[in-house]
Amino acid sequence: VSFPDCTPAPVADDHTMTNARRALALLVCCCCSNAALADHDLYIGGMAQPQLRWEQQDPSVTVTNPQNSGFALPRARLIAAGGIRGYSIYWEARVEADMVPSFQLLDAWVSGSADLPHGGHWRLTAGQHFAPFSRQTILPANTLQMVDYAQLTTLTPGRQLGFSGTLEVPYAPWLQLSAGLYNGKGINIVENLD
Fold it and tell me: Would you tell me which of 12, 38, 148, 179 could form a disulfide with 16, CB atoms 3.0–4.6 Å apart?
């Protein structure tokens, strides 16, 4: 494994930087085979979804919860995700945290998936993730058409700590089966006394 020499002006001596590179290269070589390193990806980033709301202002109408016009920031998130292929299985991990109005861990899961003969596919996921319910709840927020979710999503279990599996049936990949075992207490709750 080689790394390109793109070091900026040195802030430490060359000997320290060289040792750090060697240690990183050795760690990568020990943990991953060449075949596994051939197909990997890493994503670190974020998402912000600003919103402009325009409400008719009528002082003569009494409204219990008035909606004021103006700008809002309903979502600002940090996201780290990655995947690597090893031994015919694609391993993925994702951590997503909401930053407004306060810090809240949303996704924290690992999964493994692989293709099956005749168009089949399987996937197992463990950690805090969406319980499969509807398309809008399992898609990332940045892929949705509108900033606000449909009202129906308030009835869904949402993100839960648990384990799930999905199978696209061989010979009938249009048929997808999903099942899961979840804590059922809601987001970021580990305890479950019952």
Answer: 12
Q: Cα(66)–Cα(58) distance, rounded to whole angstroms? A: 10
Question: How many C-beta neighbours within 10 Å does residue 133 have?
Answer: 15
CA distances to 14, 17, 26, 28, 106 from 21, rounded to whole Å, are 11, 6, 9, 11, 34
- Ordered alpha helix ranges (H), the chain: 14-31, 34-37, 135-138
Inter-residue contact 73 to 53 (CB < 8 Å): no
Cβ atoms of 25 and 1 closer than 8 Å = yes
Tokens linked to 98 = 């909401």
CB neighbours of residue 96 within 10 Å: 22
Residue 2 has a pLDDT of 46
Dump pLDDT digits (tens) for 58-85.
Answer: 666 665 556 667 788 888 999 999 999 9
Q: What pTM value is reported for the model?
A: 0.64
Which amino acid, one-letter code, is at 115?
D
